Amino acid sequence: MSTVSNERARQTEGTTGQIAGGDPRLAKLVDRLPPRMADAVTYLLKPSSRWVRIPSGALLVVGGVLAFLPVLGVWMLPLGLALLAEDVPALRSSRSRVFDWIERRKPHWLDPSASKNDQT
Hints:
This protein is mainly α.
């Protein structure tokens, strides 16, 4: 692992309860993202970023619904719902069920030692 990866892993471990709403599985998934995207998601998941997270999540959901347009895509919908789940209790249970499914069906997604390139 590189120095940057080690530092990010330490940051994620130290702030897992803070950035991931108490769910370490979310922190593990964020840790697997490319560095710039992981930094953005980490910022959005901080409790102090609520006023940025809610509009961002809403815009991503709207963009996902408008996926038939050329620039937008369906990938926006789950990302927007995941961001909104931090603040909407009804979505938290759904997010927890998705994480349970990932643990059962795709456990390598949560394995920090797995290579990012060989995942499908």
